[in-house]
Amino acid sequence: MVSKDVYYIGVSDSDIRTFDIIMKTSNGTTYNAYLIKTTDGFILLDTVKEEFSNTFFEKIESICSYDEIKYIVMHHLEPDHSGALPELVRRVPNAKIFISPMATNMFKSITKIDNMNFETVWTNKNLTLGDKTLKFLSTPNLHWPETMSSYLVEDKILFSGDVFGSHYYDNRVFDDLVGDFDYSFKYYYDHIMRPFKSDVLNALKLYDSLDIAIIAPLHGPIIRSNPQKYISLYRQWSTKESKHHDKKIVSIFYVTSYKNTQLMAQKMYEGVEDVNNIIANIYDLSALDEHNMLDILEESTGVLIGTPTINGDAPKPVWELLGCMMLLEKKGKVGGSFGSFGWSGEAPDMIHQRMKSLNFRVPMNPLKVKLIPTIDELEECYGFGREFGEIVDGKMVEMTL
């Protein structure tokens, strides 16, 4: 039990090793769901991945009959939390379901049942059943647009949705009983919540008004020993400030086969560095791991990527860097690309288009040099870097197509 009259009915997926393609889950994960007992019946919070439905329903049946369930609350409709929902609705046809307004279309697509008994809810709307009151909290984009949280007033439990989750399985369930999951908690934040820092801060404003004794997330351990520790960590990670408060940072990443792209990168570095209010940094991608890439990208207002063209493509480290960009807020960031080539030279154009699709502002056409850059071409690289730095510093230019 999570607390008196609040039951854990989640399931464990101890064998999963990759989640949502991008995350490693060396400890497996859990799909958490809950039942709240009141003097007038039960409220069920979330379901589980479809393949674990039998265990989920067995847990429900060990606690109550289906006709005792009066309400269902869906904090998040991703398949790992809504997989058992269609069958649940068939077993509990008279229960009213609460979802966020953004969830309506997805909800109908998932259940494929006509005449559903549901209601949309948002911050300041409450559900009272018997001796329990559940307050709804709108927390969009954490990490889907339709996600929300709720707070059980009498028990001081925050049902946070995916916020404060972790892909960490331990059958002891509670944070003060399981092993050390700090790494999994941070890794989960970096890969799931980090792109939505402003939304995290908005959610924390709602949580700050609550007296929270327990955080019950949709993945990983239930946090009861020191919930404020984890709230503080989210606040710290989401408000992390640059070490250079008065200057903007341009980071230049490159991969090089015969030092030609490296020579271009060095000249661009010199051009950027000559712009007032800009700090330029240069990095060889072959020597960076993902964690370092993320930290560097996060503090950078401008990002230049240099790549050769190998077999008609950019090499793997470049695409790994671009993959990291999915984990960041890109608002206000400026991007550009360049590179040396021998035959076709399309890699910088690929990077240019990819950065545009990731919502970077990409104001300059890629700069490409055939084989070894000449003295004049290196001067052109210097000018490219200087202009890029000026744009990052606020110079207005027409956007490239």
- Overall residue-averaged pLDDT value: 93
Reported CATH architecture of the largest domain: 4-Layer Sandwich
- CATH class (first level) name of the largest domain: Alpha Beta
Given the structure, what is the number of helices? 12
Q: In percent, how helical is the residue content? A: 25-40%
Strand fraction equals 15-25%
The CATH fourth-level homologous superfamily of the largest domain? Ribonuclease Z/Hydroxyacylglutathione hydrolase-like
Q: Compute the separation of the termini in Å.
A: 58 Å
Provide the structure class.
alpha/beta
Q: What does the radius of gyration come to?
A: 25 Å
* Largest sheet data: 6 strands, mixed
Shape: elongated
Give the CATH topology of the largest domain: Metallo-beta-lactamase, Chain A
Q: Going across the major beta sheet, what is the strand order?
A: 1-6-7-8-9-10
How many DSSP E strands?
20
What are the low-pLDDT stretches, counting only 5+ consecutive residues below 50?
none
**Whole-number total of structural domains:** 2
Key terms for this structure?
Rossmann fold, six-stranded mixed sheet, single chain, 401 residues, 2 domains, alpha/beta
How are the elements arranged and paired?
Elements: E1 6-8, E2 11-13, E3 18-19, E4 23-24, E5 29-31, E6 34-38, E7 41-45, H1 53-61, E8 69-73, H2 79-82, H3 85-91, E9 96-99, H4 104-111, E10 118-120, E11 126-129, E12 132-138, E13 148-152, E14 157-161, H5 182-193, H6 197-208, E15 214-217, H7 227-238, E16 248-254, H8 260-273, E17 278-284, H9 290-299, E18 302-306, H10 316-325, E19 334-341, H11 347-357, E20 367-370, H12 375-392
Parallel strand pairs: 7-8, 8-9, 9-10, 14-15, 16-17, 16-18, 18-19, 19-20
Antiparallel strand pairs: 1-6, 2-5, 3-4, 6-7, 11-12, 12-13, 13-14
Helix pairs in contact: 6-7, 8-12, 9-10
